[in-house]
Specification:
The chain has seven helices and no strands. By secondary structure, the chain is mostly helical.
Length: 168
């Protein structure tokens, strides 16, 4: 069993209850989206000054955070990396669209989503009777989205480990 499978199995140990699983399917993507929105809201002048003659719409701290997360995902599982690249790119695009709608400042929308989603997560874990995995290891904050994506991959018959890592 490779590292990503070990992490997903360990994460899954505290996510057995059906209610908690449903909560995670709703709240984990919302938390990821809200973190992108919060990072998007940090002034990105230092970044845009590095590239003064380019379109800087997506040149911000959300992109930096996304690239760092994707690097981590690639080290764990190239197949999951590709899926997360699509998900995170989609969240970047949605964040840009929401910002352009001028409903409210992006940071406020993101903060509300973040707080409400974490309340949902803690309720789910209270019902589960288990502490959130990140209390044990902070990297589980990045494993949660992979755990959900791994279920989709399983339904589609996509392996999460490269063929050289899969045991017979």
């Amino acid at each position: 069993m490779n590292k990503v499978e070990q992490l997903l199995d360990e994460y899954g140990e505290s996510h057995q209850n059906t209610f908690n699983k449903v909560v995670h399917w709703i709240c984990v993507p919302l938390i990821v989206y809200s973190i992108i929105g919060l990072l998007w809201s940090i002034p990105s002048t230092p970044l845009t000054n590095l590239f003064p003659y380019t379109d800087t719409t997506y040149l911000n701290w959300a992109l930096v955070g996304t690239l760092l997360a994707l690097f981590y995902y690639f080290t764990l599982s190239p197949p999951l990396f590709y899926g997360m690249a699509g998900v995170l790119t989609g969240f970047l695009v949605i964040t840009n669209i929401v910002e352009q709608m001028h409903l409210a400042p992006t940071w406020k929308i993101s903060l509300i989503i973040f707080v409400v989603s974490w309340i949902g997560q803690f309720i789910g874990h209270k019902v589960e009777g288990a502490k959130p995995s990140f209390f044990k290891d902070i990297q589980f904050l990045l494993v949660g989205p992979l755990w959900l994506l791994s279920f989709i991959y399983k339904q589609l018959g996509i392996q999460i480990a490269s063929s050289s890592e899969v045991e017979d």
